[in-house]
Design a protein that fits this description.
alpha+beta; 4-stranded antiparallel β-sheet; 4 strands; about 160 residues
Length: about 160
Amino acid sequence: MRPTVRIEQSGDGMHKVRKHLHDVSVEVGILRGKYKSEGDEPARYVAQVAAQNEYGHGRIPSRPFMRNAMRKNKKDIRKGLGRVARAETHAKSAKGQMMRLGMRAQNWVRREITDLRTPPNSPMTIARKRSSNPLIDTGRMRQEIQFRVFNKSGQTI
């Protein structure tokens, strides 16, 4: 089976980037069940804000941090999947290599959230946030980017 990378959006606005290889997958994004409500802010709100920024919504322009992170790191993703495949063919567990790939992908997405500058915030938004970084207000969305490695039956491994 050939490894693939796919960006998904589920019905409640959560994004997942999945890398598949044989029976092991890794998801990177704001994962269902992995985040908690803080104060008056419902947990689902963070995923909705991420979706609105990734694809744009109303007056919010598209700021594709997930897609950019994966596109910028295609070569590293291919190398990582190659290491997973070699681990499987040499009777080693692919779990460690998938964990490493998931951690790296999580870091790529978080770095993209920090580094992305275009399109810029409106002057009104900059004044309200006291920052010109379009994707960081409190830092919560960046913090919620996580990964998990799971098998074909959906169990986290």
